[in-house]
Write a structure and sequence with these properties.
7 strands, single chain, alpha/beta, Rossmann fold, two-stranded parallel ribbon, 5-stranded mixed sheet
Length: 283
């Protein structure tokens, strides 16, 4: 088992205040149904920082999972919000906490041997995800050996059903458990008063006056933010499932509209993301 225990994370709660530093306007639209590898030299306006060369391996690295899906093959859904969310979120992590963070995110497939070098992985838009048998086995092995998976940005009953079918292939005997608002993951760094629902920026701006934040108002299973988890036999959370919410868009689109940044990126998407990372790395 090669998963690294990042001891530095114990100091994560040295928060530099609940306010954000200088707000910079960055964020060009990416992801969606296309994908281009990220040029390590292109920060897209996101500030860079240096990692101690003596501890290059002892840092938190944001790892996005590339997976196969219906209709899109290995394109589409998995690359949504890339690369801006993958650059902005690590920047905010290192800005707002004492966690040592790699400025360069990674993209891996579940069958990649490097997967076990990273204790935290991120997967989004699984509404059409269709894992291979090899990927199912690899994900099961990764999670049972101490890894943590965050699932984000899928809405409504149809997308839930597809994801549920796929995750049940990974854990046939384990069912996602709804997390009560009292669960520590909502309070461990930022004390959230509600389960955050972050819509994509277009939905948010369109419904600015009404305050509607769901992207599926016509779907009874798409109305309320839904956070569930899968636990191992010792009670360790292995998977958090963020359904009917889009934290990644809150990270990606933070620089495109001041109101969206203040209402969703700053108040909800980043606090919930930081809480999830802290909880995953310390429990």
């Amino acid at each position: 088992m090669k998963l690294r225990t990042i001891l530095i994370v114990v100091a994560l709660i040295c928060i530099s205040g609940a306010v954000f530093g200088q707000y910079r306007r960055w964020g060009r639209r990416g992801g969606g149904d296309w994908f281009q590898p990220l040029d390590p030299g292109d920060r897209r306006g996101v500030p860079d920082w240096q990692v101690d060369p003596n501890f290059k391996s002892d840092v938190f690295t944001f790892v996005r999972i590339r997976y196969p899906s219906h209709d899109w093959g290995r394109g589409g859904g998995w690359a949504t919000d890339f690369p801006d969310s993958d650059l902005n979120f690590p920047f905010r992590l290192q800005q707002l906490t004492s966690l040592k963070v790699d400025p360069q995110p990674k993209i891996l497939e579940l069958t990649d041997d490097q997967l076990f070098d990273y204790p935290f992985i991120y997967l989004l838009e699984p509404g059409r995800m269709e894992l291979t048998d090899e990927e199912v086995a690899a994900l099961r092995r990764y999670l049972l050996n101490g890894g943590f998976l965050m699932v984000d940005d899928f809405w409504g009953g149809e997308e839930w059903d597809n994801f549920h079918e796929q995750i049940k292939r990974v854990f046939p005997d384990r069912e996602p458990v709804e997390l009560d608002l009292k669960h520590p993951i909502f309070h461990c760094v930022y004390d959230l008063k509600e389960k955050p629902q972050i819509p994509n920026i277009n939905v948010a701006l369109r419904n600015k006056e009404t305050g509607v934040t769901t992207e599926r108002p016509w779907d009874p299973q798409g109305i309320n933010p839904d956070y569930r988890a899968i636990f191992d036999d010792k009670g360790r959370m292995m998977v958090i499932i963020c359904h009917n919410t889009d934290l990644g868009d809150g990270w990606e689109r933070e620089g495109e509209d001041e109101w969206y940044f203040r209402e969703f990126s700053e108040k909800k998407a980043y606090p919930m993301g930081i809480n999830i990372v802290f909880y995953a790395m310390t429990h």
